[in-house]
C-alpha cells in the first residue's frame, strides 16, 4: 500500500507542508509507553487554562468563532478493541474537572483490573467465578452470553486454511451483498474449536463437513468460533458460511464508491481494500498474513458491469435471473487474505503484453484516454523487475485500476492493483512533474508483487519488510528506468522527513510489537516506509557492488510464497556478503532501537575522534541513552569530495572511536551523499572550515551533501548543539547556490520557522523572516521562467520558489500568475498553464471572490484529477472564513468534494493563519464522523491530527489538545500520533522561548 499523504506534501515556505516541526522539549513531559500501560495523555491537569487565555480569545474573536467552547460532544468510550471500559460521559469543561474525572476513571479502572485479573477467576456476567482447574485464561463473553473459547487477538495455529471458494453477489442498488464461502481447512493439532475472523456481517448458516453448527461471536476482536463436542482429529475438512452484509460506507472491506460522469449521471461501483484487517468484512477468513491459501472467486453481477479479481476470468455464466451473470476466476497463487481483491464496475481498459503477462489499465469510461502513460510505465517497470529479481511475475495478467473514490494512494492486491485516479491517470497535457508521482506509485506497487505478495512479513510488526522495501525499490527502479525523472531529489527529501519524525520520543523501532487493530493501523507510518527505505539504502551503499542485489534474489528465492521476519532478510544478505561485515549484527541495531544516532566529529590534525549518541530532541532526560548503532560512517575531504570513488568508510560500533587520517586535510565531510541514516555534528572549527569552503566554491560538494549540511545544522540548533547564529552563518552561502536539493531544503527549514512566527501573530519577526528569505532567494525568484519547462529538477525548484514568492505577495510573481490564469480562462482552458506552476497560479487566483468562484466551477467540471487537486488546494487556501467552512464541510460530507480529499483539505486549510484554528475546532466537533470514515490510527487520521496541531506553540493550545484527546478515551487517546502531537507542541513552545531573542537580534 502507499499512503496518499506521503507524496502530496511538497516543500515550500509559507505553504510549507512538511511534517510537524520538531523542537526541543523535556522528556518527562511526554513518554511513549507500551499501549497497555499508557493512561490517556500524560501531564493532564498540569496546565493552567487561564494562562494565554487572552491571546487565545483574541484569535478566536478575530475569526468570529466559538473557539472558547471547549465542550465536545459526548463520546462513548466503549471500544471495539478493549474488553470492558466504563463509558465516558463527561465533557471536558475544564482541565480541573477533567483531571478529577480522569482520577475517578483511574480508580474505577484499577478496581476493575484487580477484580478482572484475580488469578483463577473467570470474569463473566455473573461476576468472578471459580475457573475450571485447567483453565488459567480469562475467556471473553460472546454475543450470545456464552464464554468465547479463545483469549487472544491472534488466531490459534491449530487449524490452517488451505483453500477458499468465495461466491459473492453484490447488489449495487440496495448496496448490500450476499456471500457463500467454503474454506478447506487443515487441522494440524487436535482441537475442539475453530476460531477465525468475521466482522460486520450477518452469518446465516455454518456447516462443517456438511453438518450444521452454531457459532459464537466475540465482536470486539472480530472473531467467531465453532465449538465441537470432541477433539477434531488431524486432517482436512470443509467449513462453509452463508451470510449477508452491507457494502461498506467507509474505505475498507467490500465498499461502495460512486462518481458523477460527464453527462451528470451518478454511477456506482463496488471495490475492495483489505489491507491490513478488512478481508474479514467481506468474507469469514483467517485474516492474518501468515495464513496463506489459494482462492477461487465467483462474482454475480448485472450485465452492464464488469467484474475483476486477482486472477484472470475463466468463464461467464448466464444465470437467467433478471439478466444476472456470474464470472468465475482462476484459482489464485498461495497468498495472504489482505491481498485478495474484487471489483464490480463500469470500466474501460487498454492492454499490452509483457513476457507472459497481459498488463491492463482500467478507468471510468470518461477517462479512458488517460491510461496510456500508466500502461507504458507499468510495462517498462514489470520488465525491469522481472529481470532484476530473477523471478518472473507469476500471473498471466496484471490489472491496474483507477478507483474514483479511494482513500490510500494505491494498494498492491496481487494481479489487481487499485489506485486513486490521481496516482494512475495522466492527461496529454501533463508534464514530467505530474508523471513523477504516477511513476513512483506504480513502481512502489509493482515492487510489492515480489516484496509483500510473493514473500510476506509473518506479522504486522515487520510491516517494514513490505513497505520499506517497496519504497526503496520504487526509487531504485525509477533511477534505473526513468533517469530523467530526477527521483534522487525526492528520495533525499524522504530521508530528511524520516529523520525529523524519528527524532521524537514518540517514534518507535522499525520492528515493533503490535497486537490491536489500531496498533496495526499505526504501523503504516513514516518509520515503516521512509526509515525502512533509508536503512536499506545505507546497507546497499555499504555492501560491495552487486552484493545487495544478490542477497535480495537469494531472499526471494528462499522464501518464495512464504512468510518472513527481519532476521531472514539479514541472513540472506549475510550469506552473499564477501566482506567480514556481519549484516545481521549491523542492521539489528537499526531495526531494534527507535531513533538514530548523532555522530560528533572532533578533529585534531590527522586524529579524528568520533562519538555517537541517540539523537533525541528531548535528550536532557533521555530514556534511551545506552543505544548504540553499528554505523557505516562514510567521509570525504577537500582533496577528493565529489566523485563516488572519493568515499571512505569507517565502522563506528562503540560509543567513541578514533580515526587516524593518513595526512593533513583542510576539512572533512561525513555521511557522503547523505546515504546514511544519521546526523553529523562537527566541532566549531569543523563547521567553519566547511562553511568557508562552500563560500569559496559552491560546487565543492555534491548537492545531496549541501542539502544534508543545511538539514543537519537546523536539526542541531533544535537540539541546542549549535547556535542559531551558526545556522545563519551557513545559510549565507545560499546566495550562490543554484542546485535544487540544497535550495528547497533551505526554503523548507526557514518555512517551518516562518509558519510558527506567523501563527503566533508575531508580525515583526514574521516580517523580518520574510525580508531574510527575500534577501537570500529574491534574485532566484525573479530569474525563474514562467514558460513550459522539461527538467523535473528545475520544475521542483521553480515551483517551490514561485509559490513562496507569490505567497509573500511579490508583485512580479502575482502579476505573472494572474496573467496566466486570465489567459487560461480566456482560452476556455485550452491554453496550458505549466503544470508545476498550476498550484501557484490557482492560489493567487483564489484570493479574489471572482477567481475563487471560477476555480470552483472548473473544479466541478474537470476530468483531469491532477489538475483538480491543484484547484482544490487553491480553493482550500482561501483566507475567507466562510469559504474555509464550506470547503471543510463539503469534503467531509463528500457531496461536492470527494470524501477522500478531506485529509488534503484540512492540511491545506491549516497552512494559513486564517484557517488553522478553525480547522482544529472543526476536527474536534466532527471527530465522530471523521473516525467513521477514516479508521483510528490510520495514516489519514495521523495526517489530520498532525495538520491541525503541529503549528501550536502556546500553553493554551497544548492544554486544548491534551484535553480533547484525553476526552476520547479508547476512541483515540492512545494513538501514537497524539503523543507525537503533544511532543511537537512542547518542542515549538520550548524552541520559541529559547530562540525568540536570537531571532530578533539576527534577522
Ligand atoms: Zn506499499
UniProtKB/TrEMBL annotation:
> Where does this one sit in the cell?
Cell membrane
One Pfam family matching this protein: Peptidase_M1_N
Record-level Gene Ontology MF annotations: aminopeptidase activity; metallopeptidase activity; zinc ion binding
Skewed-composition ranges (Polar residues): 81-93
Q: Which GO terms describe its cellular component?
A: cytoplasmic vesicle; plasma membrane
The UniProt entry lists the main location of this chain as membrane
Region (Disordered) residue spans: 74-93
Domain Peptidase M1 membrane alanine aminopeptidase, residue spans = 373-590
Key words, A-Z: Acetylation, Aminopeptidase, Cell membrane, Glycoprotein, Hydrolase, Membrane, Metal-binding, Metalloprotease, Phosphoprotein, Protease, Signal-anchor, Transmembrane, Transmembrane helix, Zinc
Classify the source by domain of life: Eukaryota
The enzyme's E.C. designation: 3.4.11.3
| UniProt remark on cofactor binding | Binds 1 zinc ion per subunit.
Site feature: Transition state stabilizer? 529
Q: Where is the ERAP1-like C-terminal domain?
A: 667-986
**What GO biological process terms does the UniProt entry carry, in alphabetical order?**
proteolysis
* Chemical reaction(s) catalysed: Release of an N-terminal amino acid, Cys-|-Xaa-, in which the half-cystine residue is involved in a disulfide loop, notably in oxytocin or vasopressin. Hydrolysis rates on a range of aminoacyl arylamides exceed that for the cystinyl derivative, however
Keyword Endoplasmic reticulum recorded? no
Query: How does the entry describe its membrane topology?
Result: Single-pass type II membrane protein
Similarity-based family:
Belongs to the peptidase M1 family.
**What quaternary arrangement does the UniProt entry report?**
Homodimer. Binds tankyrases 1 and 2.
Among PANTHER family, the record links this protein to:
LEUCYL-CYSTINYL AMINOPEPTIDASE, PROTEASE M1 ZINC METALLOPROTEASE
Q: What is this protein called?
A: Leucyl-cystinyl aminopeptidase
**Gene that encodes the chain:** lnpep
Amino acid at each position: 500500500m502507499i499512503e496518499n499523504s506521503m507524496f502530496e506534501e511538497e516543500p515550500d515556505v509559507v505553504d510549507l507542508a512538511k511534517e510537524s516541526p520538531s523542537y526541543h522539549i523535556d522528556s518527562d513531559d511526554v513518554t511513549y509507553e507500551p499501549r497497555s500501560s499508557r493512561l490517556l495523555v500524560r501531564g493532564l491537569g498540569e496546565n493552567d487554562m487561564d494562562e494565554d487565555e487572552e491571546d487565545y480569545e483574541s484569535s478566536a474573536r478575530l475569526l468570529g468563532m466559538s473557539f472558547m467552547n471547549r465542550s465536545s460532544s459526548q463520546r462513548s468510550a466503549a471500544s471495539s478493541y478493549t474488553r470492558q471500559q466504563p463509558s465516558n460521559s463527561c465533557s471536558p469543561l475544564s482541565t480541573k474537572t477533567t483531571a478529577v474525572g480522569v482520577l475517578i476513571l483511574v480508580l474505577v479502572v484499577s478496581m476493575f483490573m484487580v477484580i478482572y485479573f484475580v488469578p483463577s477467576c473467570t470474569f463473566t456476567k455473573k461476576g468472578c467465578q471459580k475457573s475450571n482447574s485447567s483453565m488459567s485464561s480469562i475467556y471473553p463473553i460472546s454475543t450470545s452470553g456464552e464464554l468465547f473459547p479463545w483469549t487472544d487477538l491472534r488466531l490459534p495455529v491449530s487449524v490452517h486454511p488451505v483453500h477458499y471458494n468465495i461466491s459473492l453477489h453484490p447488489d449495487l442498488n440496495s448496496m448490500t451483498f450476499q456471500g457463500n464461502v467454503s474454506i478447506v481447512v487443515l487441522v494440524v493439532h487436535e482441537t475442539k474449536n475453530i476460531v477465525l475472523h468475521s466482522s460486520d456481517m450477518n452469518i446465516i448458516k455454518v456447516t462443517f463437513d456438511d453438518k450444521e453448527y452454531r457459532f459464537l461471536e466475540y465482536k470486539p476482536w472480530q472473531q467467531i468460533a465453532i465449538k465441537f463436542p470432541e477433539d477434531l482429529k488431524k486432517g482436512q475438512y470443509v467449513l462453509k458460511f452463508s451470510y449477508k452484509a452491507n457494502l461498506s460506507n467507509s474505505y475498507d472491506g467490500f465498499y461502495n464508491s460512486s462518481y458523477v460522469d460527464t453527462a451528470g449521471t451518478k454511477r456506482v461501483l463496488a471495490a475492495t481494500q483489505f489491507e491490513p484487517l478488512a478481508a474479514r468484512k467481506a468474507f469469514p477468513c483467517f485474516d492474518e498474513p501468515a495464513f496463506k491459501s489459494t482462492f477461487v472467486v465467483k462474482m454475480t453481477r448485472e450485465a452492464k458491469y464488469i467484474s475483476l479479481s486477482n486472477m484472470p476470468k475463466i468463464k461467464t455464466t448466464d444465470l437467467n435471473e433478471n439478466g444476472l451473470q456470474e464470472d468465475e476466476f482462476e484459482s489464485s497463487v498461495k497468498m495472504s487474505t489482505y491481498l485478495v481483491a474484487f471489483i464490480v464496475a463500469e470500466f474501460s481498459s487498454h492492454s499490452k503484453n509483457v513476457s507472459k503477462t497481459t498488463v491492463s489499465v482500467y478507468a471510468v469510461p470518461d477517462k479512458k484516454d488517460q491510461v496510456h502513460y500508466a500502461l507504458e510505465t507499468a510495462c517498462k517497470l514489470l520488465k525491469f523487475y522481472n529481470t532484476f529479481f530473477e523471478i518472473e511475475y507469476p500471473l498471466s495478467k496484471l490489472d491496474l485500476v483507477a478507483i474514483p473514490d479511494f482513500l490510500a494512494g494505491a494498494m498492491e492486491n496481487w494481479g489487481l492493483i487499485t489506485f486513486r485516479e490521481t496516482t494512475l491517470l495522466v492527461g496529454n497535457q501533463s508534464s514530467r512533474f505530474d508523471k513523477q508521482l504516477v511513476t513512483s506509485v506504480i513502481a512502489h506497487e509493482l515492487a510489492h508483487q515480489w516484496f509483500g505478495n510473493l514473500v510476506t512479513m509473518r506479522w504486522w510488526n515487520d510491516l517494514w519488510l513490505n513497505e520499506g522495501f517497496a519504497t526503496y525499490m520504487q526509487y531504485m527502479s525509477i533511477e534505473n528506468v526513468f533517469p530523467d525523472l530526477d527521483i534522487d531529489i525526492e528520495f533525499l527529501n524522504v530521508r530528511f522527513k524520516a529523520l525529523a519524525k524519528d527524532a521524537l520520543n514518540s517514534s518507535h523501532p522499525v520492528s515493533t510489537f503490535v497486537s490491536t487493530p489500531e496498533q496495526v493501523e499505526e504501523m503504516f507510518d513514516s518509520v515503516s516506509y521512509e526509515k525502512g527505505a533509508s536503512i536499506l539504502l545505507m546497507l546497499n551503499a555499504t555492501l560491495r557492488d552487486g552484493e545487495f542485489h544478490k542477497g535480495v534474489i537469494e531472499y526471494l528465492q528462499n522464501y518464495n510464497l512464504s512468510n518472513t521476519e527481519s532476521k531472514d532478510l539479514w541472513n540472506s544478505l549475510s550469506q552473499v556478503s564477501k566482506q567480514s561485515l556481519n549484516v545481521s549484527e549491523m542492521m539489528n541495531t537499526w531495526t531494534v532501537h527507535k531513533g538514530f544516532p548523532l555522530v560528533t566529529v572532533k578533529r585534531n590534525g590527522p586524529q579524528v575522534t568520533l562519538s555517537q549518541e541517540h539523537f533525541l530532541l528531548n535528550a536532557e532526560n533521555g530514556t534511551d541513552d545506552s543505544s548504540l548503532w553499528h554505523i557505516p560512517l562514510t567521509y570525504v575531504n577537500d582533496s577528493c569530495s565529489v566523485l563516488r570513488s572519493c568515499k571512505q568508510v569507517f565502522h563506528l560500533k562503540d560509543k567513541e572511536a578514533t580515526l587516524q587520517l593518513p595526512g593533513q586535510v583542510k576539512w572533512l565531510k561525513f555521511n557522503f551523499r547523505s546515504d546514511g541514516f544519521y546526523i553529523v555534528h562537527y566541532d566549531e572549527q569543523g563547521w567553519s572550515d566547511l562553511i568557508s569552503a562552500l563560500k569559496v566554491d559552491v560546487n565543492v560538494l555534491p548537492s545531496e551533501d549541501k542539502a544534508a549540511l543545511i538539514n543537519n545544522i537546523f536539526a542541531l540548533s533544535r537540539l541546542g548543539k549549535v547556535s542559531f547564529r551558526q545556522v545563519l552563518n551557513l545559510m549565507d552561502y545560499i546566495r550562490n547556490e543554484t542546485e535544487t536539493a540544497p535550495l528547497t531544503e533551505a526554503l523548507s527549514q526557514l518555512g517551518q520557522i516562518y509558519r510558527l512566527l506567523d501563527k503566533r501573530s508575531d508580525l515583526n519577526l514574521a516580517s523580518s523572516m520574510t525580508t531574510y528569505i527575500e534577501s537570500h532567494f529574491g534574485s532566484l525568484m525573479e530569474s525563474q521562467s514562467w514558460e513550459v519547462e522539461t527538467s523535473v529538477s528545475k520544475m521542483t525548484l521553480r515551483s517551490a520558489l514561485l509559490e513562496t514568492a507569490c505567497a509573500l505577495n511579490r508583485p512580479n510573481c502575482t502579476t505573472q500568475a494572474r496573467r496566466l490564469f486570465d489567459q487560461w480562462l480566456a482560452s476556455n482552458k485550452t491554453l496550458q498553464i505549466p503544470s508545476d506552476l498550476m498550484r501557484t497560479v490557482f492560489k493567487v487566483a483564489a484570493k479574489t471572490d471572482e477567481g475563487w468562484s471560477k476555480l470552483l466551477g472548473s473544479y466541478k467540471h474537470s476530468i483531469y484529477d491532477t489538475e483538480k487537486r491543484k484547484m482544490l488546494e487553491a480553493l482550500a487556501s482561501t483566507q475567507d472564513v466562510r469559504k474555509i467552512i464550506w470547503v471543510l464541510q463539503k469534503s467531509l460530507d463528500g457531496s461536492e468534494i470527494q470524501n477522500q480529499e478531506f485529509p488534503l483539505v484540512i492540511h491545506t486549510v491549516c497552512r494559513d493563519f486564517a484557517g488553522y484554528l478553525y480547522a482544529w475546532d472543526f476536527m474536534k466537533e466532527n471527530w465522530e464522523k471523521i473516525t467513521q470514515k477514516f479508521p483510528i490510527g490510520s495514516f489519514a487520521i495521523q495526517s489530520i491530527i498532525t495538520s491541525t496541531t503541529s503549528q501550536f506553540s502556546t500553553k493554551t493550545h497544548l492544554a486544548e489538545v491534551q484535553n480533547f484527546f484525553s476526552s476520547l478515551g479508547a476512541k483515540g487517546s492512545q494513538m501514537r500520533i497524539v503523543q507525537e502531537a503533544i511532543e511537537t507542541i512542547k518542542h515549538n513552545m520550548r524552541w520559541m522561548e529559547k530562540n525568540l531573542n536570537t531571532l530578533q537580534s539576527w534577522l
